[in-house]
Amino acid sequence: MGNFIRICECTCIEGQSPYLRARIEQADGTPVVQADFGAINWYVYGENDELLSSGACVVVDTITDALQAWDLDTDGYNFSMRMEAADLTISGRTSYWVEIVFSLLLPDENIAVALYHLYQLPIRSV
Asked: Which residues 6+ apart lie within 8 Å of 76 measured at CB?
């Protein structure tokens, strides 16, 4: 996995807390499990790589040892994090980059990164 990078596009409604999901695997394709993780940290960036917010995830709350079903493929995901709307509420901003950094405890694989490009759609009044 080394410097594994996965880029995902996401769209959410302004003020919504989107779920970010990914399948994190070892180089041989075997999904990682909770015991493989030392830490998971997240960072929200705006334009020009401006850091807007950051935090850490609890491994047991965001990583599952068994792949979970989803509609992207038949394999599933093992990482799921709810991004709080407050971390995506910057006046006038509709586009964010969210970087998830997985610090692993595996012998030859020590870090993985997932990038999400989030677009917020404004709430329409009727």
From this structure: 23, 67, 68, 69, 70
Rg of the chain in Å (alpha carbons): 15
What digits encode the pLDDT tens for the residues 67-116?
Answer: 999 888 899 999 999 888 777 766 666 778 888 888 888 777 677 777 77
State the pLDDT at residue 47: 74
Q: How far apart are CA 102 and CA 50, in angstroms?
A: 21
End-to-end CA distance of the chain: 48
Q: Kindly write down the DSSP assignment for every residue of 49-65, as one continuous string.
A: G-EEEEEEE-HHHHEEE
Phi, psi of 35 (to 5 degrees): -65, -15
This prediction's pTM: 0.81
- Those residues whose C-beta lies under 8 Å from the C-beta of residue 125, and which sit 6 or more positions away, are none
Q: Delineate the domains of the chain, giving CATH numbers in brackets.
A: 4-121 (2.60.40)
